[in-house]
Write a structure and sequence with these properties.
Blueprint lengths: L3 H14 L8 E8 L5 E5 L2 E9 L5 H6 L1 E10 L2 E6 L2 E8 L4 E13 L2 E8 L12 E8 L3
Antiparallel strand pairs: 1-9, 2-3, 3-8, 4-5, 4-9, 6-7, 7-8
């Protein structure tokens, strides 16, 4: 029996070494959005700022079988921090004479070939002069 045990482990190792294990394929992309890239939507009392980005990696297969996740990349204390979207935080709005705080929510939408990033403020206003350049990380997973 002791002689068969090493043969068993050798056979098991050879069997598992020849197996190919498939898993999801994950890719990450870093995207910068400048202040000038944001557009304002204002229709029927609904107002927000958005930018449409061509993203050919979001194809019909990715829409049906895959996964797309987006994070805001921020630098905090000298280190990079990722905030998964949707992400809500507080910003200072108004002007210098009458500043006040308001929540800003950044979210995203995907459609075939397109990634749309949206900024909405808690008070329903838009603040194009308050927008800063943002960096986002887009991660795609081709199958679960």
């Amino acid at each position: 029996m002791k002689k068969l045990l090493p043969l068993f482990f050798l056979a098991a190792t050879a069997l598992f070494a020849s197996c190919e294990i498939e898993g999801p394929e994950m890719k990450s992309y870093e995207i910068g959005v400048e202040t000038r890239d944001w557009l304002t939507y204002n229709e029927g009392g609904v107002r927000y700022q958005y930018t449409d980005l061509s993203f050919p990696e979001i194809d019909s297969y990715m829409m049906e079988e895959g996964l797309v996740e987006v994070s805001l990349i921020a630098v905090n204390g000298g280190r990079e921090v990722q905030h998964p979207l949707p992400y809500t935080f507080t910003v200072i709005a108004g002007d210098r004479l009458e500043p006040y705080t308001v929540t800003e929510t950044i979210r995203y939408e995907v459609s075939r070939g397109l990634l749309t990033l949206v900024i909405e403020y808690g008070d329903g206003e838009v603040y194009p002069n308050a927008l800063l350049p943002y960096t986002f990380r887009v991660t795609t997973v081709d199958k679960y």
